[in-house]
């Protein structure tokens, strides 16, 4: 079991009862009679105790301006009441007005995993509280540096291989930590990699995360935004491993180097052919068992790309960096590098060394953070590309 | 299983000492003595048996995983350390715990379906309005401080199966013992590996008399044997002098001694299980149903 090498955050993580719990009981009380009042008064002291806790947490923060809004959450800037110069992001999850469908899986997963994972490269959840209007509020670490997508797209920002190494190193540590704790992130992409004020990269949006399934139990393959989705998921594999996140990491790596997405498929099928064109066609020879996968299709047989291809395509990474990238882009998930192997790669210690955090290129991206946190994961910002499963999939999501 | 038990919220926030747990419950009772005397309820364990049966019924047509049922049971326990049962509608709470646990264990069910099933079972106590369940879900999450991951002993059992090794009968019996431990306070008192070890010892020491005949619970298979005093023998074997008893058990005891596992906790858990099986004999589904029904109806808790 892995323990975070960093001091664990302490905040209390208390949510005490909102009025709803009270109503569970209070609603037992007939509305009009005097007896009702009496019963209510009787149960009040105890309610106050638990509500007090919640209020204490809520009162620790002040809510500021809105940073972003999505279909599923609104993100506000917040401050510790005691220290107005400190910042947090308060993500208010919209509980649909009538509780029609219960809390979404996204919200549940996010709370579930962030409550347990504490690592320098995973966004910290400081507190959870419920507000009067019965919404769940997640108090998250404030990450004003925007995200990696912003840096990649901004032509005015110049960065070098040392910078890429620093960012990738932080990403790899975050992913390793998740895997070490048996959690798959399942939505790694540049705009889920947020940047803290000190330059640290943090893995955010755990709305698609899940713990490793028990052996032989199925999981849904409808995860990870298409451009970052590995071939096994495109082929409909229902049993998979941390290798899916490693592929996404490889795609992020390539994108950091090229400054455009490496494989921007227009559809799932197009994504498959782009993967084939780039790395070679998956066959029984290079990936035993692949033809058995439910959605296995190929149109043309491209021979497997060797090391030369990576050296040619990614000259900036240098030969050692190209090796690392190649190990993350192996078609057969069983032969793909694990997060741990990624961390153990020679590239990290080769020249140039990773840039120090304080020297990394940066941009202010408070608004971007708001949008990133408010967005439902799995969605691309470009409308037509949104695809990954966000809703309860009662059949497949086992 | 997810995340790391040792750093988990379960270990940090939901593990009680026996004294602490008693104190928490006493405080709940103190606050509302009148209701307590007005509406007596059966022994907590008997209630747990009843709740468990209801959860199994609920899950029947949805082919729910045992692990989700187990998580739901732990949610109920956690919820009722913060809330007096006599101020809730247990049918709504258990349906909600079931619904949330299914989402948590990655076998989600649609809220309408869950409400439909619950309505079918308890038409008097569950309203067709799904918003009620949604609201209760929110309350449940809040009361549990949104600490939702539960670590179960099942995984430890399957991991130790090959290491020890255990026969498939032993594993099946140990599995049932783990199912049974959710009927006690043990999930709030000990970490999952202690429970798994306890279940393994029980399974190895009390060889199932009719292999394969125990179902979800090990009660039928075990209560007789354990009552016959074999249990005491086992406890003695554990507490001192390794080197006595049959070789199979000796080996296990040896393994335990080297494992640095808290043997005292294991013994205590065994005793807890033993007394569960004793209490079980007084169980009457009808009785529980009546008492809860009367309480909910006369306090209008179902509205």
Q: What do you see in this structure?
A:
The complex is a heterodimer of chains A (398) and B (303). In chain A, helix 1 (19-26) runs antiparallel to helix 2 and helix 5 runs antiparallel to helix 7. The longest helix of chain A has 26 residues, at 34-59. Chain A has a domain at 148-367: Transferase(Phosphotransferase), domain 1. Chain A has 398 residues and is of the alpha+beta class. In chain A, strand 1 (61-69) and strand 2 form a beta hairpin. Chain A is built from twelve helices and nine strands. The two termini of chain A are 25 Å apart. The radius of gyration of chain A is 23 Å and the shape is globular. Chain B is mostly helical. Chain B folds into two domains: 5-150 and 283-298, Cyclin A, domain 1 (Orthogonal Bundle), CATH 1.10.472; 154-280, Cyclin A, domain 1, CATH 1.10.472. Chain B has helices spanning 9-13, 18-31, 33-38, 44-60, 66-82, 90-104, 111-121, 130-143, 154-163, 168-181, 186-189, 192-205, 219-239, 247-259, 263-280, 285-298. At the A-B interface, helix 1, helix 2, helix 3 and strand 9 of A face helix 6 and helix 8 of B.
């Amino acid at each position: 079991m892995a323990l975070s090498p960093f001091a664990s955050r302490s905040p209390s993580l208390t949510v005490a009862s909102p009025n709803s719990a009270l109503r569970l009981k209070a609603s037992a009380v007939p509305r009009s009679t005097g007896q009702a009042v009496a019963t209510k008064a009787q149960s009040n002291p105890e309610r106050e105790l638990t509500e007090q806790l919640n209020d204490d947490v809520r009162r620790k923060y002040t809510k500021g301006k809105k940073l972003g809004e999505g279909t599923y959450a609104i993100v506000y800037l917040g401050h510790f009441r005691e220290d107005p110069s400190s910042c947090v992001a308060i993500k208010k999850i919209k509980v649909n007005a009538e509780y029609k469908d219960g809390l979404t899986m996204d919200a549940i997963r996010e709370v579930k995993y962030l409550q347990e994972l504490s690592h320098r490269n995973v966004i910290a959840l400081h507190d959870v509280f419920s507000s009067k209007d019965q919404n769940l509020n997640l108090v998250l670490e404030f990450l004003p540096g925007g995200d990696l997508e912003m840096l990649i797209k901004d032509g005015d920002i110049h960065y070098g291989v040392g910078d890429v190494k620093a960012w990738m190193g932080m990403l790899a540590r975050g992913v390793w930590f998740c895997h070490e704790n048996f959690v798959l992130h399942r939505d790694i992409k540049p705009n889920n990699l947020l940047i803290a004020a000190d330059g640290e990269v943090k893995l955010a949006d755990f709305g698609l995360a899940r713990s490793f399934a028990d052996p032989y139990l199925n999981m849904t393959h409808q995860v990870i935004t298409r451009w970052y989705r590995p071939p096994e998921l495109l082929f409909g594999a229902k049993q998979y491993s941390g290798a899916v996140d490693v592929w996404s990491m490889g795609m992020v790596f390539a994108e950091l180097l090229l400054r455009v997405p490496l494989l921007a498929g227009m559809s799932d099928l197009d994504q498959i052919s782009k993967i084939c064109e780039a790395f070679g066609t998956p066959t029984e020879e290079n990936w035993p068992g692949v033809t058995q996968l439910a959605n296995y299709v190929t149109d043309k047989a491209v021979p497997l790309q060797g090391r030369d291809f990576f050296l040619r395509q990614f000259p900036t990474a240098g030969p050692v960096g190209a090796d690392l990238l190649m190990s993350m882009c192996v078609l057969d998930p069983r032969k793909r590098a694990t997060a741990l192997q990624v961390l153990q790669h020679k590239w990290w210690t080769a020249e140039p060394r990773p840039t120090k955090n304080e020297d990394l290129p940066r941009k202010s991206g408070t608004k971007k953070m708001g949008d990133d946190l408010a967005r439902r994961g799995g969605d691309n910002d470009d409308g037509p590309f949104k695809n990954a499963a966000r809703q309860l999939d009662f059949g497949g999501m086992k | 299983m997810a995340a790391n038990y040792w750093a988990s919220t379960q270990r940090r926030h939901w593990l009680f000492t026996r004294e602490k747990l008693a104190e928490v419950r006493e405080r709940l009772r103190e606050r509302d003595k009148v209701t307590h005397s007005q509406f007596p309820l059966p022994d907590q364990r008997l209630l747990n048996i009843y709740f468990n049966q209801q959860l199994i019924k609920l899950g029947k047509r949805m082919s729910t995983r045992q692990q989700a049922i187990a998580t739901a049971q732990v949610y109920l326990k956690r919820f009722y350390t913060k809330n007096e049962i006599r101020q809730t509608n247990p049918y709504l709470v258990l349906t909600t715990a079931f619904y949330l646990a299914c989402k948590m264990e990655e076998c989600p069910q649609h809220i309408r379906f869950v409400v439909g099933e619950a309505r079918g079972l308890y038409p008097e106590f569950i309203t067709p309005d799904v918003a009620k369940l949604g609201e209760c879900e929110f309350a449940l999450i809040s009361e549990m401080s949104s600490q939702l991951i539960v670590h179960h002993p099942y995984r430890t059992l399957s991991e130790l199966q090959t290491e020890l090794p255990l026969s498939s009968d032993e594993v099946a019996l140990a599995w049932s013992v783990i199912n049974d431990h959710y009927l006690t306070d043990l999930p709030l008192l000990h970490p999952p590996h202690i429970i798994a070890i306890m279940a393994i010892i029980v399974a190895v020491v009390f060889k199932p008399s009719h292999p394969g005949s125990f179902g979800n619970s090990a009660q039928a298979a075990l209560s007789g044997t354990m009552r016959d005093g074999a249990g005491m023998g086992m406890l003695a074997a554990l507490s001192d002098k390794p080197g006595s008893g049959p070789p199979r058990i000796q080996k296990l005891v040896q393994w335990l001694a080297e494992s640095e596992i808290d043997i005292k906790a294991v013994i205590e858990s065994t005793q807890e299980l033993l007394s569960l099986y004793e209490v079980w004999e007084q169980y009457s589904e009808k009785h529980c149903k009546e008492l809860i029904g009367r309480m909910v109806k006369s306090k209008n808790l179902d509205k």
